[in-house]
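Box 3.1. Reading complex inputs
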Amino acid sequence: MERQQVIYLSILWLNNLCITNGAYKFNSLTCEVVPPESINNYVCHIKAIDRKHNMLSIASYALKNVSEIGIHFKMVKREIGGWHPFLYDMKLDLCEFFKNRRKFFIPNFIYSFMKSFTNINHTCPYLAGADLGLWNWTPDEAGILSKFPVEHGQYGLHTTWYINKKLAFKMNGSVLFF
Ligand SMILES: *[C@@H]1O[C@H](CO)[C@@H](O)[C@H](O)[C@H]1NC(C)=O
Ligand SMILES: *[C@@H]1O[C@H](CO)[C@@H](O)[C@H](O)[C@H]1NC(C)=O
Ligand SMILES: *[C@@H]1O[C@H](CO)[C@@H](O)[C@H](O)[C@H]1NC(C)=O
């Protein structure tokens, strides 16, 4: 973890120590495949579980052999006037990540909450025809809040995916924490 991230996390932690309960609910999800297509995105939706909970699914299949996956992800927070950068704006080489997850603190932390819902869980290649997805993902509220206590509000994740170094996919989602 970079020094700056440690400082951010510490400040966040101290500022929000009092908030350790609450609930998350996804409230938007958009997916966009960028031509020329290297994946086919066939699932991109939020489904209700009950009044307070819902789950998210995103799935695509590879149209080409994938030897490299890059993700640029930005966390944002809704404030007056729109979305503002919040904590992380980083690029990740997913295939390098799966070679040694411990080297990537924040991505590994995020991945730990998705691990049992995704089959994007190994290093490259992913062969043409492979299904790549995150199914019925519902975050472990208690687990996230115990490690990442945040203020109530609306948070978003804006991601851009590069496959074999070419812009391939954009996915934005947001979550309401209340
Ligand atoms: C995601 O949000 C960014 C702004 O951060 C916007 O430029 C982009 O078009 C959005 N993409 C989708 C698929 O909604
Ligand atoms: C993908 O890779 C496999 C295994 O290396 C190979 O047999 C296949 O021909 C490749 N497919 C394409 C579409 O390049
Ligand atoms: C990757 O995900 C698939 C599908 O859920 C699973 O069968 C496999 O064991 C997982 N592999 C690893 C290394 O976690």
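In summary: The pocket of 2-acetamido-2-deoxy-beta-D-glucopyranose (ligand 1) is lined by residues 30, 32, 158, 170, 172 (CB under 6 Å).
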